[in-house]
Amino acid sequence: MARVIENIIQERRRQTEKWGNEKGLLKDGFPWYIKTKVSVLGEEFGEICRAVNDKDLENLYEETIQVAAVAAAMAEGILEWANQIGTSISSGSQKPLPSVQVVRGQQWEQLSLTNDIES
Question: Where are the domains of the chain?
């Protein structure tokens, strides 16, 4: 397990070096960074499926490490966002995050916390 965790940490570092800090932009009431990571996870999962179909064990391991690293980055972003909006996250918590609405006519970074997202 230690080898796997070390490989995930190395991959996280590689991703950060390649893409930098993508955090901070908000769009459609949800952090852009988190939405981006969901898309990346989908793409990486597709590569895992391809490696399984190709019976390519080495690529399967590499892609699995990449998925874990992207998921870790996403978890980091969720914790950072929760901290910014004053919500505590505990492992296994079923408490939903408050709704967030982008203030119309303002920059993405300016948010209004509401109970319901207005349409």
Answer: 2-89
CA–CA distances in Å: residue 2 to residues 8, 60, 66, 103? 10, 18, 16, 45
Tell which residue, 63, 20, 8, has the closest CA to residue 40: 63
* pTM (two decimals): 0.70
Helices and strands (H and E) in the chain: how many: 3, 4
Two structure tokens written together for 56: 């390519």
Q: CA-to-CA distance for 104 and 36, rounded, in angstroms?
A: 22
**80-100 pLDDT, tens per residue?**
888 877 888 876 655 555 554
Taking alpha carbons only, the member of 26, 29, 19 closest to residue 73 is 19
Residues 6+ apart with CB under 8 A from 78: 34, 89
Using a 10 angstrom Cβ sphere, with 0-12 exposed, 13-18 middle and 19 or more buried, the burial of residue 7 is middle
